[in-house]
Amino acid sequence: MRLKHIALTASLLTPLALTAAGAGAEEKHDHDHEHRQHDAHVHGIAALNLALEGEEVHIELDSPAANIVGFEHAPSSEADHAAVDKAVATLKKGDQLFRFNNEAGCRMEKADVTSALLNDEHDDHGDKHSDDHDHEKKGEHEHEEHEGEETHSDIEAVYHFECDQPSKLKQVRIELFEAFPATERLNVQYVIESKQGAVELSAKDHIVKF
Q1: What letter does residue 101 receive in the DSSP assignment?
Q2: Where are the alpha helices (DSSP H) in the chain?
Q3: Structural domain that includes position 188
Q4: Edge to edge, what strands does the sheet with 171-174 contain?
Q5: Pairing of strands 171-174, 154-163
Q6: Is 23 a domain residue?
Q7: What are the phi and psi torsion angles at 60 (to 5°)?
Q8: Residue 114 within any structural domain of the chain
């Protein structure tokens, strides 16, 4: 997942990488600072990377969980788990979330969704008694943590599309805003052959033109 992210954004981030060369210990500090800045403006904002490599289109979506499921804590109730399940099912329908112009003949081949929320949900299949006890302790800990600092969780989705006529790929209509209304802004970076760029999308302007 992380390696794919680096591969997709390498050409976009090369200038930054060159500038940062030799930064040493400052790199982690800058990353943490950037992460804190992202957290400070987390609700309503998501990021998307798109790259065309040959006949393949790779898309990465990184969004605060609050935009997708309405909360960022570990799911604990039936309603929480239902919200996560519904969100994952919707996210996996990449052919409905990303609509390329018909001439390109693009079709989704694979979609993967990852999140700490899913890991917590998976852990619920363990020993019931032990789980209840652990969840009670965890709940108390999270409550104390919530009083001091808000918990942040992300949901990431990676998509792989195959296009019959990649040279005819001219635009993609992104339907995330309709599927997840809490998403107010989407920061998109793209690399299409020799073209690269960035655009900010909203519910009223949700088409990326290459």
Answers
A1: -
A2: 2-20, 26-40, 65-69, 78-91, 94-97, 116-123, 128-148, 176-179
A3: 2-17+33-209
A4: 98-100, 171-174, 207-209
A5: unpaired
A6: no
A7: -120, 130
A8: yes
Could you read off the pLDDT tens digit of each residue along the chain, which spans 210 residues? 343 453 554 444 443 333 334 444 444 444 444 444 444 445 799 999 999 999 999 999 999 999 999 999 999 999 999 999 999 999 999 999 999 999 999 999 999 999 999 875 444 433 443 344 444 444 444 444 444 455 778 999 999 999 999 999 999 999 999 999 999 999 999 999 889 999 999 999 999 999
Q: Which two tokens stand for residue 197?
A: 């760029």
Question: 35-53 burial string, b = 16+ CB within 10 Å, else e?
Answer: eeeeeeebeebbbbbbbbe
Number of domains the chain contains: 1
Backbone angles phi, psi at 29, to 5 degrees: -60, -45
Backbone torsions φ then ψ of 108, nearest 5 degrees: -75, 135
Domain-located, residue 24: no
* Residue 25 counted as domain residue: no
pLDDT score for 115: 95
The DSSP secondary structure of 31-76, one letter per residue, reads HHHHHHHHHHT-TTEEEEEEEEETTEEEEEEEEEHHHHHS--SPP-
The three-class DSSP label of residue 202 is coil
pLDDT at res. 29: 41
